[in-house]
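Notes from the 1:1 (GR / supervisor)

We went over the backlog. Supervisor wanted to see one worked example end to end before approving the batch request, so GR pasted a single chain during the call. The sequence is below; no edits were made to it. Supervisor asked that the structure be written out right there so they could see what the output format looks like.
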Amino acid sequence: MAFATKASIMDFFFGTERPVMRVSFTRISVCLALLGVPASGVFAAEIKVFSTVGVQAALEELTPAFEKRSGHQLKITWATAAVLVKRIQAGETADVLVLTQQSLDAMVKEGKAQAGSHRNFSNSGMAVVVKQGAPKVDISTPEAYKQTLLNAKAIAYSNPAFGGASGVFFAKTLTQMGIADAIQAKAKFPPASGNAAQLVVNGEADLAVQQEPEVLAVSGVDLMGAPPGAFNNITTYAAGLGATTAVVGAATELIDFLQSPEAAAVYLKRGLKPEKK
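Structure output shown during the call:
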């Protein structure tokens, strides 16, 4: 029985002349398999991702699964959506942009992200946390929430000057409640792209108010729940292709994966709600 050589296999699929031609991915994959070469290794890509810290815990958990399944490697830069937008506007690029829906829409309008490529994959509200084991606070009604904020000796939240969604929104609600000056006097801000809950763990603040998936990523805090009614802000997260990506196929695989049932299960565990396709 004659055994096929690598040369004969290549001749079978591509012909002895091997002219320049377009060959289907399926035919190439079969050929590579016969040669003992895994297709994932040949078509693997490094995907540069700019991602908001709002989904960092979930995406960090999902990264190994995606890399194992696809053969691609993710190179992720974390920051608030506002910081990433400024970097993109200044000329930096990425293959996949994972931002708030509002920020990604703005990038599409500015030509920094590819129109029609972005999809919403999850959303989250805000949350109030205290140090683990500390007395619970009442945030069940707008009046109770306001009084809890006034009673606290120090409150941690994202600096509105940095442009983070939760910090900007929280500052607006303080004005609406008429307590902006009182809270400003005892405000504690984490560094840009930092986590307000960490200041609670360190004892610098009595409570923290930030996006739920972010504060849940910090150990040593107890979740009190979401601010009541209109004092809570729901943020939708979306992923889209960068305008100049050279790895469209691989980048699209990642965006598809972020809408998968596997990803949805992680979102729920990390304080996010999956968006319907």
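Supervisor's comment: The longest helix spans residues 56-70.
Batch request approved.
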